[in-house]
Amino acid sequence: MFFTIRIYIYAGILVVGSIFNLQKAKKRFHQSNNQVVMEEIFTTPQRVSQKVIQRTGTTVQVNGREKLLDEPVLYVANHQGLFDILAFLGYLGRPIGFIAKKEIKKLPIIRSWMELLYCVFIDRKDRRQSMKAIQQGIENLKAGHSLVIFPEGTRSRGSKIGEFKSGSLRLAMKANVPIVPVAIDGTYHMLEEKGRVQASDITMIISDPIYPIDYQSLKNAELAQRIQHTVEQLLDGCNNKELKKADITK
Fold first, then answer.
1. Under a CB-based contact definition with an 8 Å cutoff, are residues 198 and 56 in contact?
2. pLDDT at 250
3. Which residues form the signal peptide (predicted)?
4. Residue 215 φ then ψ, to 5°
5. Over the chain, what is the mean pLDDT?
6. Of 115, 119, 141, 246, which has the fewest beta carbons less than 10 angstroms from its beta carbon?
7. Residue closest to 161 by CA, chosen among 238, 101, 91
8. Per 3-state DSSP, what percentage of the chain is helix, strand, and coil (rounded to 5)?
9. Would you say domain 2-249 falls under CATH 1.10.530?
């Protein structure tokens, strides 16, 4: 438990220490928010996420980076644990935002960084607000800002995937952007498995993009099932020893 407290304190220090960069980022954001500026802004959240994960003793291995596109996409992933978000921020290698729970807006500095990354805050208990948040996400994608969603709706806290809900996939369908399935494995070992922070080995596997022409004839539920099946296959691939030798990031 002492190690867990140390990690939380370390993360807090990094977040507070980012205030100066946050002010610079806000100024740059209001001057211009083109792709170059977004990459500059993303540098701090990326570095902070990497430092926190590294401090836990965890390694992160990413396979399939060559499949990433230089255009806005909707990343669709399974959700094992809290550290999924830091893994994406630290190691995907692209500026991204998230569809996030409204409770995160209570965290001042983190909230400000998330707003700069075009994250969308959603209250799933308020249908009207949820619809408004989804529309905002669609507009963000159309404006060129990639998003990550976890269609299970909550952390699985283990290796088994919950049902992918189809509603959030409307983000891609309405914005007419590619969908990139991503499987992530090992994050639940870091916290959810024992209720305290510990080291793990995380694997992220990026799948081939699914382009609008490939999914526009599908119903939401059919598309959700197809993506879930893809992610499940990717997770099976996490046990492939040859796959684990490729593209390692620590």
1. yes
2. 44
3. none
4. -120, -5
5. 91
6. 246
7. 238
8. 50, 15, 35
9. no
Q: In the structure encoding, which two tokens stand for residue 39, read together?
A: 């990459």
The three-state secondary structure class of 130 is helix
The one-letter amino acid at 183: A
Q: Where are the domains of the chain?
A: 2-249
pLDDT at res. 69: 95
The pLDDT of residue 12 is above 50: yes
Other CB atoms within a 10 A radius of the CB of residue 30 amount to: 8
Which residue shows structure tokens 């197809």?
226
Residue with tokens 């893809």: 230
Non-local (6+) Cβ contacts of 6 within 8 A are: none
**pTM for the model:** 0.92
Whether 207 contacts 103, CB under 8 Å: no
Neighbours of 231 (CB within 10 A): 23
